[in-house]
Amino acid sequence: MLSSIFSIFIIIFAGYILRQFSVLKKSWLKVMNSFVYYIALPALVVNSIATYNWQSDQLLDLLLGNAIFLVLSAVITIGVMLLLPISRKNKSVVALIAITGNTVYLGIPLVNELIGGSFSSSLNGPITAISVIQLVGSLIVIVNLLELFLVSKNDKRSYISHLVKNPLLLSAFVGSLLAFLGVFNGTFEDLFGGPIQMVAATASPLALLALGGFLHGIKWRKIDVSIILSSLLLKMAVLPIIAYFVFSNFDTESNIFNSSVLMAGMPVAITAFVLSDEYKLNKENVSIAILVSTVLAPFTVLLLTSLIGL
Hints:
The protein contains 14 helices and no strands. The protein is mainly α. It has a single domain, classed as Na+/H+ antiporter like fold, CATH 1.20.1530. Helix 11 packs antiparallel against helix 12 (254-264).
């Protein structure tokens, strides 16, 4: 668990140091985030969906349970957003922090370590499926919320236009289509899968380096502790408990139940920083939320393991 978390902080610190010595230029940060948002992250989504073997007896329960969890998460988050007496952009920051979880880069190794046994002998199993479903599902939810609250407002035509052009939603559609057609099976796997995996692998390191570079010049006066705390309370406490009650109503294997709940309790994803840059939100609040939630992850995850009886 700790090694995975340390890896994240090492890359963030490297970005900070590179910015300190002007190796990493300030003007590069926007370019790096744009590359992650428009190329690397869509490649990750396509690769995650298209290369996984979705033939599973538990697939329906996985999809239905996580769909219910994500919808409830969105409803609860919207309720909190509407109650908080803050600006529209700050409401969007709350949603961004609460909904985006680090289910792939941190979730998979952490859950594998905690579950143990033969269940985690391969990443091409239910743990990967759960992480992918929550990753893609959370992206769909948060992009819709951001579009509704920030970009399109009451203009339905503009709202639909933005969604159709969104690279993350487009990549989810492309990945689903490729999975349905079985393009990555057999001879096409090496031809197309390899390059996409290589590009996808750059998403997290580049975003973490950009985050470290951004933290070097962070404007502390823009940080709102109340927004960060309320967002993290939702992310690290309320939503995992919601997941616990949702999945407890499904007749699934205990490992699948445990994995789904643990994935729901992962810290804020680096994706949140990329999206905050893309939608011109308060990156300071999002950055601190990522750092704090990652530091707290060992403690909150251990509390979750006690809740589910691991």
